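Marked as duplicate of an earlier ticket. Keeping the data here for the record.
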Amino acid sequence: MTEPTIFKRIIDGEIPASIVYEDDRCLAFHDVAPQAPVHILVIPRKEIASVDDLTPEDEGLIGHLFLVIQQIAREQGLAEKGYRVICNCGEGAGQTVFHLHYHLMGGRDLQWPPG
């Protein structure tokens, strides 16, 4: 049996997190190693390894995640100056936790390209 990811353990309440939003479909919390003044992870409660593992039935969930990201960005004061939403897909792109997640980052000017 595969070990649960750290995100699954956060969802299950086994590991504490600084939660900023949660509902029946997703959870959002501060990253423990922030790369910007505001760095929040938004994850679905459903276990999906990466973007590459999405199915047509996940379409509504993904739309919901982006509306939650928008809401959090506004609540965190990021919407006026701008923010970045990042999703790494696969090890070669820097994905280290294989549970779909979006990084919401802002609070300073962000450079491009990022990596």
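See parent ticket for discussion. The radius of gyration is 14 Å.
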